[in-house]
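Dear support,

I submitted the protein below through the web form. The confirmation email said the job was done, but the results page showed an empty box. After a refresh the structure appeared. I'm attaching both so you can tell me whether what I see now is the final result or a partial one.
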Amino acid sequence: FVLDRQFGMDQGFDSYDDRFDQDINSMGIAERRADETSRHAIHWLSRNKNRKFFLFLHYYDPHYTWTPPEPYASTYVDDPYAGEVAYTDNQIGRVLDKLRKLNIYDSTLIIIVGDHGELLGEYGETTHGFFIYQPVLRVPLLIRAPGRSEGRRISERAGLIDIMPTVCSLLGIQAPEIVQGIDLSCYFKDETYSAGEREFYCESITPTVYDCNPLQGLIADRWKYIHTTRPELYDLVRDPFELNNLMTQEPQQARILADKIRRIMETRASPITGDTKVVLDSESRTRLESLGYVSGSSGTDTFEYDESKDDPKDIIDFHELHFLAKLMLAREEYDNLRQIGERMLAERPGFYQTYYYLGNMAFRQGDDEKTVLYYRKFIEYDDRNEQVFNNLGLALWHLDCREEALECLERAVVISPDMMEAHYNLGMKLGELGRLEEALEHLELAYKLNPDDADVQAELMTLRDKYSAE
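What the results page shows now:
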């Protein structure tokens, strides 16, 4: 879903295929299986084999929840993550086999890369996105240059920023000056080539959602430094699993790397100019929240450190509770969600996103009183969530608090003028009160936003007839 065209990801492509033939549910959102992705790719290659092309394929499968299809589910019954990796590997192989059958394998530049790893319980994190330890940062990067068959493994570090200049070099294209990576094709041409010592920056602002300090890291030669409330320093050669914090033994090395991070932020950080934000509808917001890409709780990317704030290492257990709350809501496991929510409120009552999950649960269960209770607590902190105001309005209407209900529904359409559901609900409630002209206006808008909705069509026709008769 994060590659949906609504986020501008289709820019520059002649063809952008983000529509599913069949989807599966993962964390409350739809994802496309790798076999469908490969099938679409194979079909596309068959039609474009005689043209120069750039083909980008994205495989989402090795993401939580890990549910590989058979026979991988049985083969990897004790390690479903490895099962999804193996399944995805097989599906990538289908595309490579197609290139061979079309006789364009040898002339095609092929790059296979991951965007992140998973911690799988290491350091207390189930998936990824919170910590910046090596299992998340170290990803596979495989490059097959056209016309080269011999394999070679490079021990030196590279980064994802190196992919663009490498592609440009291998295809004879001038890389833009703004590109920060290096051309890795030199490794193919000269076995003695070395890029020398390089520095790689990493960060995570996810902890700031819980009012913790952020994480900033720098890897330089054998050293890795993580800047936060209690900084960390690791010797990756002697301690690749980052178990022995050397801050007290190597304070000078830590200061050197901390200074480099400060200089990176001073020279590379620049304010975003122009309007680059995408306005999300309620469904998109819900999907991105379930994936962890946005949160109802406000985080920050200012990288200002406050020694009085919690260290992210101390909050990982709560972060995992938060992860479980999203999972239980997506799975509609409400008894578990209720217990988790109570724990979250007891541990961090200021984390108001908990009220959002409990409010959604109460609304889905038809408990109007608790829906009102939890949503009212939520909007004390965040009064910009249109779905909350829509749901709150319906719950208040059921409790016969009609004026307040209308105010909430009106608030929803002010926040999100394109929210069909809120226009429909507001129109229906106004119609019940006999305010037909206002009701008709909102039902007309709902129909305009989704003319295929049968309920909207039927109610609009009924209201038009009633309005005409009066």
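Response: this is the final, complete result; the empty box was a page-load delay. The mean pLDDT is 90.
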